[in-house]
Design goal:
By secondary structure, the chain is of the alpha+beta class. It folds into two domains: 223 residues, Sandwich (Jelly Rolls); 89 residues, Orthogonal Bundle (Arc Repressor Mutant, subunit A), CATH 1.10.10. The protein has 15 helices and eight strands. The strands form two sheets. Strands 2, 4, 5, 6, 7 and 8 form a six-stranded antiparallel beta sheet that branches. A two-stranded parallel sheet has the order 1-3. A hairpin with a 2-residue loop joins strand 4 and strand 5. Helix 5 packs across helix 9. The radius of gyration is 21 Å and the shape is globular. The chain starts with a helix and ends with a helix.
């Protein structure tokens, strides 16, 4: 019996192959970046949300296949063209829809076929290589903030993905940065992937909200395939959501009062769930936000220090240099 949803995605895939406007837009953006070689080389190793997402998007689907690339210009240095591993500022998963592809990760090459799904966190340096003309991969990408503020409360009871994404933000090294799944044809996980593809393509009212719900449902379904038992993070999820909205001023005392947990108990819970203590986690959160504001805004360093919860510029400069190795002014100048 034919799967009507699969037939619909087949039609969408054929349309994408006929008119890959999204790939042309990507290449146009890269051509513009090449005018600043340092920015382009940085982009090749680290994809930012500003480059990838369109305004108003928190979640998107990017079909990828062997599209004819423009020939390198004689003036292009080899670094512009050589294969390179990259990371993301956002969360990504990709689904092999047809053909074969290779995923290169940590000096290993994974050969993946139709039905394979791979999930990355922000620590995972990787590279994909489509093999042959039949290969087509659907990339599903979600902004980091949307995961923390909107999906963490939904996934709070899901140890697998809660820790996978949370520890990637915090730099935890004791867990994998990549997970692989083989989806059953016609199964619920495949249905959620197809639903995300269709919803993004159609772009109907409230499409972004619908896609986030589908994304969360897909992660839960994947965890059912992967996990058996485990301790719940349900009580911790609202704490993380609150921190992500109040990161510049939040204190342990405030959290203790709001969530009715002793400070010592909260400290133990935080260490257990994130792999670090509260103060280090908040410091990292603030410094990463400060780095983004320095790179992407015209705000003064004094204003950024204030937004990050520092009343004294000198304290902010000292903390930022400890985190990045340079002062805020040097950081902005280098960019």
């Amino acid at each position: 019996m034919e799967n009507p949803l699969k037939a619909e995605i087949d039609k969408i895939t054929a349309e994408v192959r006929r008119d890959p406007a999204h790939i042309r837009r990507w290449l146009e953006k890269e051509e513009e970046l090449k005018k600043s070689p340092e920015l382009f080389l940085r982009h090749r190793r680290f994809f930012t949300e500003d480059f990838v997402f369109e305004p108003g998007e928190d979640i998107m689907v990017y079909p990828d296949f062997n599209y004819p690339l423009p020939k390198p210009k004689p003036s292009d240095p080899p670094e512009f063209c050589d294969p390179v591993l990259h990371r993301h500022e956002f969360y990504e998963m990709f689904y092999v829809y047809s053909g074969l592809c290779e995923c290169i990760y940590e000096n290993q090459t994974y050969a993946l076929g139709p039905g394979s799904l791979c999930v990355f966190n922000t620590l995972c340096s990787h590279r994909l290589h489509n093999i042959g003309g039949e290969s087509l991969v659907y990339n599903i990408m979600l902004r980091e903030k949307s995961f923390i503020t909107e999906l963490v409360p939904v996934l709070g009871e899901n140890d697998l993905f809660f820790n996978f994404f949370l520890r990637s933000f915090n730099g935890g090294a004791d867990r994998p940065n990549l997970m692989l799944f083989d989806l059953e044809p016609g199964g619920p996980a495949e249905a959620y992937v197809f639903g995300l593809i269709r919803e993004y393509r159609q772009g109907r009212a409230n499409s972004q909200s619908m896609m986030k719900l589908m994304y969360a449902s897909l992660l839960i379904e994947l965890s059912r395939m992967y996990m058996s038992g485990g301790e719940s993070d349900g009580d911790f999820a609202p704490i993380m959501a609150y921190i992500s909205e109040n990161w510049s001023r939040v204190t342990m005392k405030e959290l203790s009062s709001l969530f009715h947990i002793s400070q010592s108990g909260l400290s133990r819970l935080f260490k257990e769930r994130t792999g670090t203590d509260f103060s280090d986690y908040i410091r990292r959160f603030r410094m990463e936000r400060a780095a983004r504001m320095l790179a992407r805004s015209e705000l003064t360093v004094e204003k950024i220090a204030e937004l990050c919860g520092y009343s004294q510029r000198a304290s902010f400069d000292k903390e930022f240099k400890k985190f990045t190795g340079v002062t805020p002014c040097q950081y902005r100048k280098e960019l």
